Amino acid sequence: MTGLAQLCADEIASVLSREGLVNSVILMETALRVDLDALDLIIVVSSTYGHGDIPDNGQAFFSALEGRDSLAGKSFCVFGLGDRTYADTFCHAGEKWDALLETKNAHRLAPLKRHDASSATLAEDVAAEWAAGILSELASAACCS
């Protein structure tokens, strides 16, 4: 909702592109128009909003995934954005995405990565480092699913 998740997604996409992995950044508000059956790998980048909620622009997509029978055959990982000063809800949206994709039988490539806005790090830098650190898993899923 503030653009930080998109900035992080763009950084992740840049890491993948530099390694020759074809990818697209899809905004949550337009994700319902995407043919998920054509995707092997789903990387969700999500902030946490309000009281641990999915941001407004991602709620319809989240609900649509909840309604699917299965995402078997898909691989996923999640980069969650939050602020530890809100300890009760820190990265809850990322946790919700991670749990949903797992319950729909998608294969988790890496543990949920949480970025803390109150840390001394830039979320987009952490996102790029995270993607580089799990690149072999991402490349394997993107080419061999």
Supply the CATH architecture.
3-Layer(aba) Sandwich
Percentage of helical residues?
25-40%
Give the structural class. alpha/beta
Topology order in helix (H) and strand (E) letters: HEHEHEEHH
Unreliable spans are none
Helix count, per DSSP? 5
Shape: globular
Give the percentage of residues in beta strands.
5-15%
The number of E-state strands comes to 4
Query: Which value, in Å, is the CA radius of gyration?
Result: 14 Å
Question: Into how many domains do the coordinates divide?
Answer: 1
Characterize the structure shown.
This protein has helices spanning 4-18, 59-66, 92-103, 123-133, 135-144; strands spanning 41-47, 75-82, 107-108, 113-116. With 145 residues, it is an alpha/beta fold. The chain has a single domain (4-140), classed as Flavodoxin domain (Rossmann fold), CATH 3.40.50. Strands 1, 2, 3 and 4 form a 4-stranded parallel beta sheet that branches. Helix 3 (92-103) links the parallel strand 2 (75-82) and strand 3. The model has no long low-confidence stretch (mean pLDDT 92).
